[in-house]
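Question (not urgent): is this output format expected?
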Amino acid sequence: MPSTSGVFTTGENSDIDTAAELLIAPTIKCVFGILVKADKENAGTIYIGPKGVTADTNDATDGFPLEAGEALFIEVDDSRLVYVIASVENQKARYVAV
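Got this back:
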C-alpha cells in the first residue's frame, strides 16, 4: 500500500435522515479511507455502518454513533461501502476521502 495519496476529496452530506443512505454520492475510489465528522450543530446522533445500518434500534445492525463534532476514520477503498442514518431528520456530516 502506498504511504501517501496524490488525491483527496472533501464534501458534505447535508440531509441525513432516519432512513439509511449512502454517505457519499457519486462513488469515490479511496486509497486509505474516509474521515467522517458529524456537524457541530447536529441535534441528533449519526450512525455509520454498512448497507442496512440502523440507528440504535437493533443490536445486530446498529451503526457506530457520532455525536455533534465527533469523527471517525473508516479504512475502505470504495465510498459505496459507507452508509449513514440519523436519530432525527436533517443532520449533517462532512467527509474527507483519501
